[in-house]
User: Which sequence fits this backbone?
């Protein structure tokens, strides 16, 4: 309960009301009190001033909970004894009220019962037959009602503070998860975009190195394609920066994939076919398809030793279907999830409620199939 603090204005407001009412009672000579100028009045004012100071110390948390509660109890008792107007009995409601924040509901209820019992014992000792006097009975009832209201108010305040703390903790967890999600997204983007282009550059530079003497024209074409891959990599870096700034435009899948087509030359022949309308598909869905195609093509260039790679996308009214197939050497199907690239691709596709299937056998090529439902991911 140490995390909860009392409502700051309740205690000072009640102290001020008791001080004003007590002094008015004496100044107006409404009873048989000692008068406005007397040691008893001075003690009454000093006791309330000490309660004000104790309250300030409690808000600064310069006193532990138990000494603070004992100090309030002693000073409240002294003020009640010195107050000729008997208005200060209302201060007893502050004891369980403040105790609720520091020690919980059980301690507050016990202290409230103790306050009622103390007043009742005082009546038994000092006012025989008090139960036949309406003034005493009403004072006892009003104290009971005040204690109930004070404890209820404390319970509401503690509940509100607890809810605020839980909300802050939840917001911190959401921020942490959002940061982790963003780190994973950036890792996927780096792997999918730069990884693809760097792989292509590496392959083309190897071809240029091997054919430099035997076939200068082939080496020159490989260098040209390497420079093209560098320009594409720079374009992807700029696109990633715009995405981080929130400036990324809706991608055109057909235009992005069209740049990959080539008739062979110094590398495998890549054919690209996109049919259907992209309208109605979100940026996240189109990006997932693009990155999946990129990953499939990267793996074909890097590992498959393929001569032909086909990229086919069908955009229908209900779902998009991507198929990347090559005639390379293939691999064992149970190793399909070993690399970060396939893992990241599955994560990205699953975020838009899609599915991934990899069909490959040694010596029979590889076929990557991705299905993304239209409207299945966030816009």
Assistant:
């Amino acid at each position: 309960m140490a995390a909860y603090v009392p409502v700051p204005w309740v205690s000072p407001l009640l102290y001020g009301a008791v001080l004003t009412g007590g002094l008015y009672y004496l100044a107006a000579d409404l009873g048989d009190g000692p008068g406005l100028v007397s040691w008893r009045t001075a003690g009454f004012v000093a006791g309330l001033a000490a309660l004000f100071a104790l309250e300030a110390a409690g808000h600064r948390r310069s006193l532990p909970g138990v000494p603070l509660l004992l100090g309030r109890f002693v000073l409240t008792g002294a003020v009640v004894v010195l107050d000729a107007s008997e208005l200060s009995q209302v201060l007893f409601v502050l004891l369980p009220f403040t105790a609720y924040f520091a020690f919980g509901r059980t301690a507050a209820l016990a202290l409230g019962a103790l306050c009622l019992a103390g007043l009742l014992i005082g009546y038994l000792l000092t006012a025989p037959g008090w139960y036949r006097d309406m003034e005493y009975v009403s004072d006892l009832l009003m104290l009971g009602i005040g204690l109930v209201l004070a404890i209820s108010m404390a319970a509401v305040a503690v509940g509100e503070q607890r809810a605020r703390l839980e909300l802050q903790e939840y917001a911190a967890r959401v921020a942490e998860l959002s940061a982790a999600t963003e780190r994973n997204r950036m890792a996927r983007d780096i792997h999918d975009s730069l990884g693809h282009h760097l792989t292509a550059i590496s392959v083309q530079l190897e071809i240029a190195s091997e054919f430099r003497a035997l076939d200068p024209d082939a080496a020159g074409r490989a260098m040209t394609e390497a420079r093209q891959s560098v320009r594409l990599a720079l374009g992807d870096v700029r696109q990633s920066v715009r995405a981080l700034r929130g400036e990324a435009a809706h991608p055109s899948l057909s235009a992005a994939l069209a740049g990959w087509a080539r008739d062979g030359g110094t590398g495998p022949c890549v054919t690209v076919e996109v049919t259907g309308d992209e309208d109605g598909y979100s940026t996240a869905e189109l990006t997932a398809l693009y990155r999946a195609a990129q990953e499939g093509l990267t793996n074909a260039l890097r590992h498959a030793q393929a001569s032909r790679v086909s990229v086919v996308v069908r955009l229908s009214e209900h779902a998009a279907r991507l198929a990347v197939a090559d005639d390379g050497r293939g691999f064992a199907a149970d190793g399909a999830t070993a690399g970060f690239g396939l893992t990241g691709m599955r994560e990205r596709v699953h975020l838009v409620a899609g599915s991934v299937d990899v069909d490959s056998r040694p010596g029979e090529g590889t076929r990557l199939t991705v299905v993304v439902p239209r409207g299945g991911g966030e816009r």
